[in-house]
Amino acid sequence: MEAVVSAADLAKTRRQLTESGRSGKLDAPALRQVLVDLHEFWLTSKGAELGIKPHSGFAIVAVGGLGRGEMLPYSDLDLILLHDDMPAERVSEVADGLWYPLWDANIPLDHSVRTVPQALQVAGDDVTAALGLLEARHIAGDEDLSTLLIGGVRQQWRNDIRTRFPEVVAHAQDRWRRAGDIAHRAEPDLKNGRGGLRDVQLLGALAIAQLTHGMASLRPDSPGAGPQVAYTRLLDIRTELHRIAGRPREHVQAQDADEIGAALRIGDRFDLARVISDSARTISYSIDVGLRTAGNALPRRGLAKLRRSPLRRPLDEGVVEHSGEIVLARNAIPSKDPGLILRVAAASARTGLPISASTLSRLADYAPELREPWPAEARSDLLVLLSSGHHMVDPIEALDRTGLWGRLLPEWGAVRDLPPRDAIHTWTVDRHLVETAAYASAMTTRVSRPDLLVLGALIHDLGKGRGADHSIVGADLAVQVGNRFGLWPQDVAILSDMVRHHLLLPQVATRRDLDDPATAESVVETLGHNRVLLELLAALAEADSLATGPGVWGEWKASLILDLVRRSMRLIDGEEPSAPEPLTDEQLATAAEGDFAVRLVRAEGQHTYRVTMVAPDQPGLLSKMAGVLALGGLRSHSACAQSADGKAINSFLVVPMFGSPPDAGLLRQQLIAAIEGKIDVLARLDARERDSPIPTIGTVTTIPGTVVTIGASAGSTDPEVDGAGHPKNAVPALFAVAPPRVTWLDAPAGEAVLEVRSDDRIGLLSRVSAVLERHGADIRWAKVSTLGATGVDIFGLRLATDTDAARAELAEAVVAVCPPPQPVREEDGDGPQSYGGTGRSGVPIS
């Protein structure tokens, strides 16, 4: 490199290097390194000329890009002239000699003149200055003076981080609000946006404070491969952006994207957008983990020092909450429990708590692949995850960033970070699918198959990015996915038809004459006169539109689709009235054991059991049986209530909340006590909710189906359990995603059939049954199923008073005991935000 004797030569050489980069002589990393060497050489030479030498009492310290060794073509020079309390005249002479040549050469300069105490004071008062000084690097002059500053800033940062951490978080959140989320911006701010370069630099600052491990890489097979790789990608893109724009710029604009992609050998602007999204999401995940880890690592102050260690609260089999995170129980063995990944994700979605990074790492290293077809337990946990509204976004993102989501759904790789071809879309294709499922989860009580609704929403665009009609390709993929999930063949067919025809209703409703009878007839013929498929497509059309972008779903479009659906429904034959299933041999054998009998056997799945309960038929019996199971820590996934020879014979498919189920003999004793009035089941359920309020972590509120234990024995880190080995004071969350829906179905004369669709709640079947019985309704039979987090319960009744008014009053009373829907989330310019009061890092937002 030629000697640089003036600032004009420096500016000229900068221009030459940038132009040589355009011609392909220097790639982005090489250009940055040459620019660093160039500026160091000039500053060292100029400093020596001005007397800035070892032991001179002066030093040149670089911060910003030069401090990090990452000079971009049009980066500012961020310099500090450090002096050891030298005379003012001498300081002014040296400063003028250093700054004026740079100004005269029009080289952008951000400068300051400080003593070490002055610089430390600035760092102590201003978090932005502190973050900058943490990247300071000695360039020329008195190295001892630079070392004193650099060491002092870092020591001060470590000493003060306990009190400054909230300010650091607020500073980052304010930057994110201004710049937006890089992964989902049309013109992302690579430097300041969420998931950008500043976030990786913040991770470095937290590592200096000894609160995190900095940029520890994810697994090599994880998307993005880790924050350091993602950081380098974004830095290369920013370098080319400077070079192509010919000026300092942080936003990647459409007109420059193709040229940047070509220069970096990435591809066209769509390929570039995919790389940016992937890198930003990797960094976003890393900063979430870093801030959460740092917050948990902070030393306690005041009375907090006297508190016991955080309790480990059980949430599901092998899954507990500890220090505000989802972690594995001590006895959990990931290598022997393939379904553990989904139970962890479902627990995170239900509670709003983040999954611990160490837990994700253990699962990635040791959890085996789920065998195909999936067991019913794994499918149920997936449905719980997909039924949790926008709470599902963060756990799915965490699984995806650590390579676990791709194991569950290998087809996801084709749409991961895939940019939309239509500007009307807000999200990348994979995020659009998750958003659609989140919106669909609020519509699960509208349809008879909520499980197929959320599954169809998750995969409806899975065929994109494969070079053919995504609806046709996606329909074939849906068959593949449905078979893997273990759906029945007829359900696989419906799922495939949902994907194949997910655009049918919007296209027909907005493009054809609805008054023409042929319009509805064509829809009905296309769907094979399938009423279930029609209602699923109607809900999916709304969820898909809401997840596309602002203004896509409105009153006009909604009214057209609703009109089309109504006309089509009238052409489809009515369904046969619901009827009870015949009794099985197992049920009859249990009934023969005596007046009171309880049989508990393991069903399909590692943690699923079938409980058959028999007792003399009498009013209120179903409520008591279901309540006894709920108090025993058993969640009912399905139930069938019938009677024969004066006995009620009720079967329940249950899953323990945690651990093993109680003994059948204990359940029998509790059932007899409940029937004899010695145990008031509903009163105990009510007392548990009233006396044991649902805990929150920060400002995160628990949500549907959550089971949280409160109260542990003194000095213990494990939950207090009852005689049956179940957590005491386990209470459900009372907030639902979808509103409850109560419908009277067609029934033979003299009978009434009531369908209740509601988000699940521990003891819900007991409460609904009690309401029916209090209103004089004789429950002749019942079929209960829980599909994910949504219950679809059908009761065959004989009403004491069968009038429209009586039915309306009964329906209103049933709705009153169902979980109410949670408030609608707030939105900002970056699209949907999570429910609750935290940012994605789990740090409370004031």
UniProtKB/TrEMBL annotation:
Region named Disordered: 819-846
HAMAP family per record: PII_uridylyl_transf
Stated regulation of activity: Uridylyltransferase (UTase) activity is inhibited by glutamine, while glutamine activates uridylyl-removing (UR) activity.
Record field: catalytic activity: [protein-PII]-uridylyl-L-tyrosine + H2O = [protein-PII]-L-tyrosine + UMP + H(+); [protein-PII]-L-tyrosine + UTP = [protein-PII]-uridylyl-L-tyrosine + diphosphate
Cofactor(s) needed by this chain: Mg(2+)
Protein name stated in the entry: Bifunctional uridylyltransferase/uridylyl-removing enzyme
SMART domains reported in the protein's UniProt record: HDc (SM00471)
Record carries keyword Nucleotidyltransferase: yes
Statement: the UniProt record of this protein carries the keyword Disulfide bond: no
Domain ACT per the UniProt entry, residue ranges: 610-686, 753-825
Any GO MF annotation of the entry: phosphoric diester hydrolase activity
Residues spanning the signal sequence: none
Domain (HD) ranges: 429-530
Domain notes: Has four distinct domains: an N-terminal nucleotidyltransferase (NT) domain responsible for UTase activity, a central HD domain that encodes UR activity, and two C-terminal ACT domains that seem to have a role in glutamine sensing.
GO biological process, one term: regulation of nitrogen utilization
Entry EC number(s): 2.7.7.59, 3.1.4.-
Pfam families in the record: GlnD_UR_UTase, HD
Stretches the record annotates as Uridylyltransferase: 1-314
Matches recorded under InterPro entries: ACT-like_dom_sf (IPR045865), ACT_dom (IPR002912), HD/PDEase_dom (IPR003607), HD_domain (IPR006674), NT_sf (IPR043519), PII_UdlTrfase/GS_AdlTrfase (IPR013546), UTase/UR (IPR010043)
Family note: Belongs to the GlnD family.
Chain segments annotated as transmembrane: none
Source species of the chain: Gordonia lacunae
Function statement: Modifies, by uridylylation and deuridylylation, the PII regulatory proteins (GlnB and homologs), in response to the nitrogen status of the cell that GlnD senses through the glutamine level. Under low glutamine levels, catalyzes the conversion of the PII proteins and UTP to PII-UMP and PPi, while under higher glutamine levels, GlnD hydrolyzes PII-UMP to PII and UMP (deuridylylation). Thus, controls uridylylation state and activity of the PII proteins, and plays an important role in the regulation of nitrogen metabolism.
Gene transcribed to yield this protein: glnD
Keywords from the UniProt entry: Hydrolase, Magnesium, Multifunctional enzyme, Nucleotidyltransferase, Repeat, Transferase
Domain of life: Bacteria
